[in-house]
Amino acid sequence: MAKSNSKRAFKSASNTTTTKAAEISKPPAPYSTAPPVLISFLETLDPKHVYIIHIDDHPAALKKRIFVVPVLMNIFIAGLLLWRAYVALPYYVALVMNTLGYDTIFQVDLTSTGWTTLMDIAMSRAFMFFIDFTLVKFVLPWPWEFFAGSPGNPIAWRQRVGFQDEEIVVRRSRRWDETLPSDWLAEDSDGTVYKERILPAIDKKWVKAKTSYLMIDKSWDLDFAGMITAHHLVRVGKARLSDFQKTVIAHSEEHGWLAWPVWKLDEGSEEEARKKIVVFKDKLTAMGKENLFFSWIELIQFETSQPGGFTKERQAKTMEKAKELFETQGVDFDEFWQEVGGYQGLPGMQQSSNSQSTT
């Protein structure tokens, strides 16, 4: 009997230890272990970087027009550099020959040349060296990386992927990831890394408004090799396009590759907005003001479709117009929204939502 009790106690202690170990090894929220379908893709990424993937659904024609600009710019820069090399190369060859003791047009007779002339010659050559060094050091990398960068570059990306209505975008963190604290994955969303680097880059409206090449900024660069690999995996059937929906990917020494499926949050916010619109309409219908609902829809559609985008200023004006619309129908704007649970998340009411949270 005592032996049986000791066995049960041992099993209980063992189960408790296993449970605690599982809790310790669990990835920090909101991350989870990356899905197996992405393993082939993740193996090509650099664990030192943070990545964001998503699907760019802008029209292929728009992507072509946008890509033409950097192509022409880099062709122009490359042409200037080739012209400069054509002009300067004979000059440098002559200087080297002169240094080796051969007679060239750049040979200077130190015995018959005044100090002022010597200084002018030295300054002009130093200036030329400085200009050419600057071109090679800071300007040449632009067209080189664009046309011949390794392991991937924009030209190779477009040659292999082409222009499609739905494209996989892979963004890679820039050098700020070198100073990341070891425990940054466990940070709250109010932490510096999330607030300054990640959250702005996954903002639903920002991502929706920009095609891939316009997303290059001081915090994020495009991983052209990663995008080529992702499309190749889809093409050969090892992954689906839907496997690359908006997700933050990071590597942990303890847990390996981790994924935060941000796209689920976007879907959740859309569903919440739809439910709120239904409640909004049903409430007005019960009040005999269904026409007010359709007037509000027309107002929002008109304001959000104006040139220049739905800016904060336009959002504020739309809120004022919505208040006037409610008042003309004899409905107290603030009281109505309190009864239906607020207007946060409804299209066209972003500014009013912000105003409400600050009052």
Descriptive notes:
There is one protein chain. Helix content is 58%, strand content 8%. It starts with a helix and ends with a helix. Strands 1-6-5-2-3-4 form a six-stranded antiparallel β-sheet, sandwiched between helices. With 359 residues, the protein is of the alpha+beta class. It is elongated, with a radius of gyration of 31 Å.
What is the CA-atom radius of gyration, in angstroms?
A: 31 Å
Average pLDDT figure: 83
Number of DSSP strand runs: 6
Report low-confidence residues grouped into runs of 5 or more: 6-23, 350-359
From the N-terminal CA to the C-terminal CA, the straight-line distance is 68 Å
Order of strands, main sheet, comes to 1-6-5-2-3-4
**Structural shape:** elongated
- Please describe the biggest sheet, giving its number of strands, its sense, and whether it closes into a barrel: 6 strands, antiparallel
Helical element count? 14
Oligomerization category of the chains in this entry: single chain
Structural class: alpha+beta
> What share of residues are in beta strands?
5-15%
What series of H and E elements makes up the topology?
HEHEHHHHEHHEHEEHHHHH
Helix content: 55-70%
Can you summarize this structure?
The protein has 359 residues and is of the alpha+beta class. It has 14 helices and 6 strands.
What topology emerges from the helices and strands here?
Elements: H1 2-25, E1 32-33, H2 39-42, E2 51-56, H3 60-99, H4 115-139, H5 141-148, H6 154-161, E3 167-173, H7 192-202, H8 204-209, E4 220-222, H9 224-235, E5 247-252, E6 256-260, H10 263-286, H11 290-304, H12 312-328, H13 333-339, H14 350-358
Antiparallel strand pairs: 1-6, 2-3, 2-5, 3-4, 5-6
Helix pairs in contact: 3-5, 6-9, 10-11, 11-12
